[in-house]
Amino acid sequence: MKSTKSKSWAEPYRMKMVELLKMTTRQDRIKAIKNAGYNTFLLNSDDVYIDLLTDSGTNAMSDRQWSAFMLGDEAYAGSKSFYKMEAAIQKFYGYKYVIPTHQGRGAENILSKILIKKGDVVPGNMYFTTTRLHQELAGGMFTDIIIDEAHDPLNEFPFKGNVDLNKLDKIVKKYGAKKIPYVSIATNVNMAGGQPISMKNLKELYKYTRKHKIRIIHDMTRVAENAYFIQQREKGYEKATIREIVKEICSYTDGATMSAKKDALVNIGGFMATNEWDVYEEARNMVVVYEGLHTYGGLAGRDMEAIAVGIEESLDDNHQHARVGQVEYLGNKMIDYGIPIVKPIGGHGIFVDAKAFLPHLTQDQFPAQTLAAEIYIDSGVRTMERGIVSAGRKANGENYYPKLELVRFTIPRRVYTQAHMDVIAESAAAVFDRRKSIKGLQMIYEPKYLRFFQAKFKKL
Q1: Is the same domain home to 309 and 322?
Q2: Dihedrals φ, ψ of 183, to 5°?
Q3: Model confidence, pTM
Q4: What are the catalytic residues?
């Protein structure tokens, strides 16, 4: 009898070099996390076994990228490496004008300063920490217009990154289109659990914004992963390539910011792109103030060379199949263990529902922060909080209370093996088995901005 079971996925690469890791004891880890104030961001990387803190800049570069490093043109002005990166962005993404920045938040800073005025409103499909902060520092106010399904971890709607056009329309009617400098659209929404936006929804949004003369600015950090989900889930795109889908996504937007440290497979770098000459001209002036000359923007020539190669590699269908396949493998292992995760499984990591995992803790006892610390103690696996700590405070000093209180198990690209995924899942299961005995945390130090990076806690 012929089996109908799908074949296992495998990585479309082989290993040429390995990095040796330090193995620690449980007592070592208890001491380390206590010294770090129960904040995984404050752990020394030397004390971490499997590092799932982020997929930002933690990817493994290919031999082609390392070779490109040697071609880096470190000229202060007119670096030929910039023109290679610019050409790749124009070819594969379709944007006309490019401003290099040291990473994504550099692009967010410049874009916000150019487009946002005091009192403006910026609708978006769920906030991201640095994006919202730059919008607020520029005088704007972020407003969430993502569909309601995105706030429900158990809802398996395939495109939970979609915009609710009725929510957007109410904002336009309330404030007027002139008060909206742009709609902020992330592909593969991070804070929702790596959830994609559909092409159909993006087309509808584009049509609406053309009618009201409002820009769409694209946070394209994980656009290739979003394209993969469109290919797999959306009717009419089954035979389209990742490269074709990405180009179409970008065509429905007016500009973009990107942290190349994610999809583009590099350790540092980013850019701002636009199709508007006036915006480009202002950004080209401003980048000199905040980043560096407009032909390097805070990047070495070698970094721009690696980005140019990484962009093309990220659009390979086999790469994305293996990349998302590894995430899905881990997610399904956790589901088998009964661990509550955000569904459907996202593109860049597994998001564990800390409210469901630790229902005896109130949100003010920081269940996601607590769970991240407990996972580290169990196995040396470093994850991160995406809940009340990441959400921060409102202008009046009150905490935001997001509906989603998550621990993000973020998978770096081309770094870990399937065996590592097994260890991670088993560790989460071991903590889940003793979940009722876990106590929460109290914050004892809080920085002014982006507190999740540096806040410290103690055990209740």
Answers
A1: no
A2: -95, 130
A3: 0.93
A4: 76, 128-129, 219, 262, 386, 452
Question: Tokens 């569909």 belong to which residue?
Answer: 147
Q: Are residues 416 and 308 in the same domain?
A: no
Which three-class secondary structure state does DSSP give residue 334? helix
In which region does residue 144 sit, left (phi positive, over 0), alpha (psi from -120 to 50) or beta (all else)? Answer: beta
- As a whole number of angstroms, the distance between CA 233 and CA 226 comes to 10
Alpha-carbon span 279 to 53, nearest angstrom? 34
Instruction: Identify whether the C-beta of residue 352 lies closer than 8 Å to the C-beta of residue 409.
Output: yes
Task: Decide: 376 and 43 in contact? Cβ < 8 Å.
Answer: yes
Q: Which of these, 455, 351, 427, 403, lies nearest to 151 by C-alpha position?
A: 403
- Out of 289, 314, 339, a domain closes at 314
**Structurally, how many domains does the chain consist of?**
2
Report the CATH number that the domain containing residue 340 is assigned in CATH.
3.90.1150.10
Looking at residue 392, its amino acid is G
Distances (CA, A) of 270 to 132, 136, 260, 273: 18, 21, 5, 10
**Whole-angstrom Cα distance, residue 341 to residue 345?**
8
Range of the domain at 274: 63-314
Tens of pLDDT, residues 334-361:
999 999 999 999 999 999 999 999 999 9
Which residue numbers in the chain have pLDDT < 70? 1-8
- Residue with token string 């978006």: 124
Alpha-carbon span 242 to 412, nearest angstrom: 20
If asked whether residues 447 and 416 sit together in one domain, one would say yes
Long-range CB contacts (within 8 A, 24+) of 440-449: 440/358, 440/361, 440/362, 440/365, 440/366, 440/367, 440/370, 441/38, 441/365, 441/366, 441/369, 441/370, 441/373, 442/365, 443/366, 443/389, 444/37, 445/37, 449/133
The CATH number of the domain holding residue 159 is 3.40.640.10
Report which secondary-structure segment, H or E, holds 234.
Answer: none
Look at residues 312, 269, 313 and name the one whose alpha carbon lies nearest to residue 413: 313
Cα(143)–Cα(362) distance, integer angstroms: 26
pLDDT in tens, 27-41: 999 999 999 999 999
Helices (H), 351-450: 354-357, 367-379, 388-391, 418-433
- Answer yes or no: do 192 and 285 share one domain: yes
User: What radius of gyration do the chain's Cα atoms show?
Assistant: 21
Instruction: With respect to residue 210, please indicate whether it lies within any of the assigned structural domains.
Output: yes
CA gap 6, 29 in Å, rounded? 39
Residues 100 and 248 in one domain: yes
